[in-house]
Amino acid sequence: MRNDKVIQVEALTKQFGDFKAVDHISFHVEKGEIFGFLGANGAGKTTAMRMLTGLSKPSSGKGTVAGFDVLKESERIKERIGYMSQKFSLYEDLTVKENIRFYGGIYGLSKNQIEIKTSQILQELNLSEVGSKLVRSLPLGWKQRLAFAVSMVHDPEIVFLDEPTGGVDPNVRRQFWEAIYQAAELGRTIFVTTHYMDEAEYCDRVSIMVSGKIEALDTPDNLKETFKAESMDEVFLKLAR
């Protein structure tokens, strides 16, 4: 049963001068949930995620991630989460193995743990044959899967994915969502931002941001029913009017 709220946010706001990039948003995410954070580019998704991951301080409001306060305990939050940025966070001039080992060290794994994780990731992703190749030589889809695996090298409770499927073809996007499902089946909570409205169908619940505010939050099926829409694209278009 999903009854643990691993992310809780109340009236969270980020203001730059007179501009509110994130405007009093409130929501929660339950343990083991795939939570979609949807919106057009510039809607405030990445700014909100940066506050939740401890990379940016809120202007006002409150929230907790993995039980820690986003304002006062950002370093504790960073220890408990995985994070994959839009650019995949990989070092192009390092090999596949070197990237895994580097991030294992960053997250405080022992040498033995790093070796075990390196072998495990290479095997699970079928990358053993290219483990000694530079990351820059990999196809985009492989880089994407590697970045996702590296973000979970320390077995975090919650994984934040910021536009993880941007710039890849639909087939690669589907493969990546299969990896997300596998991670969720292990009990991890997945918080994913995207501007691809069709990807909402893969989520347990989604919120839709418009101009810094959450304008809708529910399961994809309930949102389509509420807005009398055939697809999440249609839901979004009705909200954005």
Question: Quick recap of the structure?
Answer:
One of its GO terms (molecular function) is ATP hydrolysis activity. This protein has 241 residues and is of the alpha/beta class.
Topology record:
Layout: E1 5-16, E2 19-30, E3 34-39, H1 45-52, E4 60-65, E5 68-69, H2 74-80, E6 81-84, H3 96-106, H4 111-124, H5 140-151, E7 158-162, H6 170-185, E8 189-194, E9 205-210, E10 213-218, H7 220-226, H8 232-240
Parallel strand pairs: 3-8, 3-9, 6-7, 7-8
Antiparallel strand pairs: 1-2, 1-4, 4-5, 9-10
Protein name: ABC-2 type transport system ATP-binding protein
GO molecular function: ATP binding; ATP hydrolysis activity
InterPro entries: AAA+_ATPase, ABC_transporter-like_ATP-bd, P-loop_NTPase
Architecture overview:
By secondary structure, the chain is an alpha/beta fold. The protein has one domain (32-54, 79-240): P-loop containing nucleotide triphosphate hydrolases (Rossmann fold, 3-Layer(aba) Sandwich), CATH 3.40.50. It is built from 8 helices and 10 strands. The strands form 2 sheets. Strands 6-7-8-3-9-10 form a 6-stranded mixed β-sheet, sandwiched between helices. A hairpin with a 2-residue loop joins strand 1 and strand 2 (19-30). It is globular.
Structural features:
alpha/beta, Rossmann fold, four-stranded antiparallel sheet, globular
Helices and strands: which structural class? alpha/beta
Classify the helix fraction into a percent range: 25-40%
- Report strand order across the widest sheet: 6-7-8-3-9-10
Q: Outline the biggest β-sheet.
A: 6 strands, mixed
Q: How many structural domains are formed by the residues?
A: 1
- CATH fold annotation: Rossmann fold
**What is the β-strand count?**
10
Shape: globular
Spatial separation of the terminal alpha carbons: 37 Å
Low-pLDDT windows of residues = none
Tell me what portion of residues adopts beta-strand conformation. 25-35%
Return the string of H and E elements. Answer: EEEHEEHEHHHEHEEEHH
What is the typical, i.e. mean, pLDDT?
91
GO cellular component, one term: membrane
GO molecular function, one term: ATP binding
Subcellular location: Membrane
Domain ABC transporter: 7-236
